[in-house]
Each structure stands twice: as structure tokens, then as C-alpha cells.
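@channel anyone free to eyeball this complex?
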Amino acid sequence: MRAGAKVAALADALAPLGAVREEQLAGAFLVLPAAAIHEAAASARAHGFDLLLDVYAIDWLAYPEHRGPRFSVSYHVHAVAANERCTLRVHVHDGDPLRSVTDVWPAAGFMEREVYDLFGVPFEGHPDLRKLVTPEDLDGHPLRKDFPLGESPTLFNGGRFLDPATFRAGMIGASRGRTGWIGGARKGVVSAAPEPDPTDAPRGAAPRGDA
Amino acid sequence: MKLERKGYAVEETGRPGLERSTTGEFETKHMRINVGPQHPSTHGVLRLVVDLDGERIARLTPQIGYLHTGFEKTMEHRTYQQVVTYSNRMDYAHSMGHDLAYVLAAEQLVGAKVPERAQRVRVLLTELNRMASHLLFLGTGILDMGALTLFFYTMREREEILTLLEMVTGVRMNYGYFRVGGLASDLPDGFEARCRAFLDGFPKMLDQYATMFAKNDIFLNRTRGIGVIPPDVAVAYGLTGPSLRASGVALDQRKAAPYSGYEDYDFEVPTSDAGDAYARIMVRFAEFEQSLRICRQALDRLEPGPIKDPDRRISLPPRHELETSMEAVIFHFKLVTEGFHPPRGEAYVATESARGELGYHLVSDGGSMPYRVKVRVPSLVNLQSLEAACVGGLFADMVVNIATIDPVMGDVDK
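replying in thread with the prediction:
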């Protein structure tokens, strides 16, 4: 929302790196190639964007008609003196590392660890890249779209166990752990849960809500 | 950024925790000790791994995640209205702030128009809750320094605020009272009078608090010049909120990017240049006065009127319409079973919670549930400044620094 002269100057300065400016309700976004993030971060810092508010990732796996790399990592920055803000965004494939910006903004320490923990995007050059919030013995990255929601199976009379996610998926005939309203039509009880699509294939190839 | 280690020299050995100190008469080794997760001063479950050089802190690493609940993942599987149930459970001391931040982002996404009265009530309740949060901060913060009495006094006034909020919402914590498009219900009868009585009596209580701690020699010695965070370090470590303003950076989202009509209210942003624990306490203490001013203005301008967006695709129709209008029944059914579908896009509204910048980044895929919810929580980011405040200081001052940076662990771990 608050994008003025500073953001315009930064967009011009980052244009040689391949930055494309996009406007969202959330504000101005500068979409960059993944390799340019560190240089762009240093440039943003030099342009007066001294407060790093947040680093967050989005898993586009289940997003309808999404093409391109699976993850995007966004750096929400604020210029305190000018009261302007924008977001630097890069897209990365599953497993591809990003260069850490902890030397530009020390605040990125926890934020990059959080992205690493919950999405599995590794950061090169991070001084202390460990899990942040999930337990050491948890495998996987919970905020990925193919990670199940994780409810505990319930024991019913007669020794019958019900796994809620599988049960619900069977009731509405859809995959588990996906977003979007897909209820409303009961299609009978299907016992086996469909396996989520582990590949990093471009979206659009598979129908939505179905793996 | 390498933190300056005040007053003593350390020789790096390349092995964490085994640095040698070269200041004293003889060579010492660092001692690594563990604080928490169950420790009364951490106000929750915060574990700190501290490397000590004698009594001074050489390195401090917070270990968090003991309260991780996966709120973001859960929210991605709930409709936009249902998320209100979860948002307030993160920062349980300033629940209204989380509710407000969420509904503002969702309203930006769906394009809801919130009526004037709902905006005023939101501001009023958020500021009341901010005072309750600061009262908790003040009471427990000074309790950590050994002064027990003030805690009971601040709890007394906090109780009155919680009673006021209970009148409105029905619960004392985890309110979930704001809705996308407005409010759940209108203010009850008798609320305004009781709220005014509290607002009139509270300044006297503030004076009473001040006589109890502000000139106390022990308090001054334990906070003045302790845990200094210079403004450049504070900004580099992402500190926001009252703790940042105590370092001399007057960044307040209520002024920098007003939301919910904050631009209409007359209030100031207290700051201090000292950056120490004393400044962090006194900036929050000065915020009581400003919150009181905002509350009074909100009450004065409270006009009767609608409390939610009349758009039937966003707000539930009034109960009486369901008995006469088939269309109302259909809208009601669609909203309850399915919810509304915001267009594709991303929304974020920065708000000022009692702890710093708080915002919900929502990504919509056109469905009735958010595709991605990312909560920018202030406590998690502010916690990184703890090392900047503590390194070089005495171990006993760490407790003061934790208290004055004021993290709420539910807000840290999400």
C-alpha cells in the first residue's frame, strides 16, 4: 500500500537483475530471479529499506493453474525513514538453495530458519540453519501442501480405527490435506486415501484437488 | 552484525562455548548453562542456552517451539469466518489485536465495507485489551525484579478490563468477537457506563502504580542502563512496537499507516532515546495514557448504527429475516456451509499490537478457505533482539531483559 518514490527507485535499480514489479492488495512486489536475491537485498538495504519485517514462503503445489517453480520466498521490507514498504519475491524449485540474507539484515536469522523448518527451503550461508519450531524427530515440512493436516486416529467401538483425514476424504471423494471448498457431494465411502503428488510438476496438468 | 561485547575482551577459539576470556588475571573458560523451558521468568516455555563468562553473558541462543501448534496450517483448512476462532489464541494477552489484524486482511481480500460503529467498537476494544496486556507486562515485569505488591494492583485493574470485555464477548480470553465485515454482536446495555467509570478511575490507579515503582531505588538500579539496544541494532534485528520506540525509533503503524479509522483519533506515540530496560517499561507506561485517550474518543463518537457489512455474501442475514425471506435462508445456508469466496490475490494489513507490528498475509486461490496464511508475529522477531540486549550484561539482568522485551510465547511459537 505504501509504495512511493523509494520503491520506484529500488525497482529501477533492480531492473537490470531481472526484477518485475507487480501490484497486489498487499502492496508492491518485486519479483526476482532466485540467483539475484542477495544482490537485490543488499541493494534494497542501500536504498533505505532497513527493517526486514518478514521472510515467508508459499507452496504453490495445489494452487490452480500455477506454472513455474513450486515455492516462492518473499522478503517483506520497510524503510523506516521514508515510511515505504515493498516485498522482494523469488521462486525456487523444491530442494534448490537460496542465498541467506542474514548478513544484510540480521533479523532474517529466525525467519529463514522458520522457512527452512516448515517448507524445507535451504539457505546457503546462514550461520545457524536448524529447525525453529518443530520437534527434532519430526520428518517433513508441515506447511507444504502435501503434508497431511495431522489429526489423531480415533478408536470406535468394536476396535475400529478411523483416521479423520482419510475418512473425510472418503466421504467427499477428494484428496486429503488440500485447500479449497470441495464438499457438498457425498460419493460413498472410499477407504484408501489417495497419495499426494510428490513431483514438482507444473500445475494445470493434474485436475485441482485430485492427486 | 557482530555484537559488541561491552567491557571485556574475548578470544575466539573457533569452538562455540569454549572461547577464552583474556580480561581477568587468569584465563577462564565459558560455561554453557540452560535456562528453562520451565522457568518463572520466561513467562511461558522459552528455553535459553546461555554461554557465561563469569557472571557476564557471552552468547545467548533462544530455543523455541514448545508451544508450536501449527495455527497457520489449521487456518488453511478453515473458512475465512472460522479462522477468527484461531487467530486470537496466539497472543493470549492481546487477543483483540490478532483478531483485528486477521479481519482487516480478510476484509481487504474480499472487499468488505465495515460500518462506522463497528470500526469504533473495534478500536475501543483493541485499546482496552492493549491496556490489559500492558498491565500484565507491568505487573509480571516488576514481579521478576522482586516487587510482589504491584502485581496485585495491576491484576485488579486488568480484572476490570477483562470483565468489560466479558460483557461484550462472553469470554475473558480468546475473544473471537470481530467478524469479517463487522462484529459478532452489538455492545450490551450498561457497557458504556461501566467502561466510562473505568476510564475515569484508571488515571488515579496509574498514579498509584507510579508511586509504587517509578522512584524506587532498586527498580531504577535494576533497569537504568540495563539491556541497552541502540536504534540501529534494534532496526537491524527487526524489533518493532514499544521496545523499538524505547530505542528512539517512532514507528507505530497506527500513525504510519492508519487502519480502522485511527487517523481520526488524537493521540501521541511515546518514545524514549535511552533504549534500556527502564525506557521499555516507561514507554509502555506512557502508552496507558494514550490508550485511555483513544478509548474516550471512541466512546464519545460511538453513534448507533449497523455493526456489520450489509452485503449478504459476507455477513449473515439478521435472524428475523430468516422467518420471512427465502433469499435470506439461502444466503444463510451458503455462508454457514461454505463461506464466501474472495477473488484470487494476496492481502496484508499491518497493525500495531501491544508487542509490535502484527499482520496476516493471506493468499486466496478463489476458494472459501485461505490458500496460505502467514502471520507476521511481533514476539518471534522481537525475541532475536534479546541477545543484543543481553550480551555483555550480567546474567541476573537477563530476566529483566526478557520481561521488558515482552514476548508472549504463544505468539512466538504459533
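from a first look: Chain B has a mean pLDDT of 87.
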